[in-house]
# Entry
Amino acid sequence: MSERTFVGGIHPGYFKDYTAGKAIASARAPAQVIIPMHQNIGAPCEPVVQVGDEVKMGQKIGEPKGFVSAPIFASVSGKVTKIEPYNHPLGNPVLAVFIENDGLDTPDESMKPGKALEELSPKEIVQISKDAGLVGLGGATFPTHVKLSPPPEVQIDTVIINGAECEPFLTADHRQMLEQAEDVVYGLKAFMKALGATRGIIGIEDNKPDAIESIKKAVEEGKGEYNIEVHTLHTKYPQGAEKMLIKATTGREVPPGALPMAVNVVNQNSGTAVAMAQAIKLGKPLYERVVTVTGPGIKEPANLLVRNGTLVRDLIEQCGGLTDDARKIVLGGPMMGLAQPTLDVPAIKGTSGVLVLTEEFVADLPISACIKCGKCLEVCPMSLMPNFIGSASEKNNIDLAEKYGAMDCFECGCCTYTCPAKRPLVQWIRIAKGEIGARRKK
Amino acid sequence: MERKLVVSSSPHLKSPEDIQSIMVDVLVALFPVALMAVFLFGYRALVTMVIAMLAAMVTEAIILRKGNLFGDGSAAVTGLLLAMTLPPAPPWWVVVVGSVVAIAIGKQIYGGIGNNIFNPALVGRAVLVVSWGGHIAGNVWLKPVPFGFTADMVTTATPLATKAASLGDLFMGTVAGSLGETSALALIVGGIWLYYRGHIDWRIPGSFIALVFVLGLFDGGFSLTRGLFHVLAGGVLLGALFMATDMVTSPVTPVGKLIFGAGCGIVTMVVRLFGSLPEGVTFGILLMNGLTPLIDNLTLPKKFGEVKKSA
# Structure
């Protein structure tokens, strides 16, 4: 069989050794959690609790304001002390519910096992994912129930579990596939049943042989009548990008501007599959997730099960604190994650990692003119013209940027990583995308 | 006090490769070629190469008002490449004029690295060819004396002029010619290094050389030897591996590279077979340099997932 991968991509340093060997541990629940009311792509939530209310762990505190949205839950039991805007990983402050932790972790009554998967109808599975507030945990945070509700004319035949975890440094998915393989398979079965899909695929990069083995075993034992394959993928960034993963595992190419359902596929992250399994088995909504706290700037890197609304400051403290040369805090991986101006920012549903980079990673390199080496074309997984889009955007020539494919860029950052002239290509492309998007709305 | 955090747009990892490291790789690739030149033509070759590189670097440093002579390394590469296109021992001032023109007019006048339309070294060479042709063409070619570092040398005709030389001599380089063009072996070693380091693509040299070979087959009847002769003699390998592959002045699209290389090959052979000059590599590449932006825009690659329009 030919190697499963895609055209383009890069081989950066992977830096997984900081945490790949560390079992998932529960993070200390902080004295106060600050839970933002917007944690997914799509509409934000409206708080359904008031200051002074006592809340239980797993109680719904945010109600979605639209279809493409997901409810938000208390991650501790205690008292609501404040509801006001607070720092958010995406930048601008967002309305947040502050809960003072009473330390009792009193569970909400809704958290109890329901029917087994065999007895659930596809509709019920979708409803459970919606009620549990599931979103894509790879970082994109697209509400899961929306993905599980394709328009009636679309027949999904394949569900792909994304276990590539191609971002350097991150090992949360790796550890979950290793330690909770059974739930990954259970979650996949639930997704397949919800969609009526006949084929399930779990794709894992070949730099995680232990996870592959563990998942293969779980598939063997747990697949039942489901048709599930485990695919070993070539380790290359961005192997875990939706379109690249579909190409590598099924050979299908999602057309520009289209969603995976255009080729009858739905992708879900391995962490989302685990959350789905726990929602069905335990009635547990999404109020905590696995976060890799890592990087050369952190003293004791770890994979932690983190309550929603825990401040990055708390997580860093638990991991031994920052080293003296720590200079940059990134939420997510180093290729697509967002640098934070402060440690006082809460971990949310989409926070897959807290990465602390040191001096050597933040050198401010001078930008030169494009030397047209074409290396960005070679690495662009979408076969775009990053150099030309970047130069056009730099000159504010938005039409030209659009012509060279700006809107098809999903901002993986391979071009910027590769550019020998150190041009911030993806940054310029983002600017162009913003302009083009604003123009189209008019 | 709270420490200050750096905030920047992702990605937060950058490849260690930069323009200087690429230029150093090109210099390394040219090392076997330079070594061969000194082996064949002695100290004269060394002097010519050093003058060309120094003049190029000084010109660039003056124009950019920078104290760092080596800088990003591109001027050194341009100087050395220019020297490779010259006869072993032209007058020193001819070499200097060539380097100054290459950097000042071939490159900096357009805005410096990345902005020039034409290969700077070839611009320098072209100006020398039309202005001081007597010094760099005609009766200036030395008969190589291997190991003859300080040996006296006599002039002789180049294989392209006489159309006679054994393929073995052409491969090893023991024929008369420009400093960097005689030894196919050294050029191929350098080309392999550039390919291995990811700085050149097979498409430009591949289509360039293929076209020269195919058109060469028909030079006087149909003969495999003539095809190989045209590939190995003169500046085709130097041009195809080191000049046409100049990043700044060649297309970036895969199809564009094929067209560009093929165009270089065709023009080269048209000049060789029908023109008044014995060699056409310089003008082949310069002409195609001028077409590069057009070629790029006509050959934009198919985006991921895009369906080819059916005919």
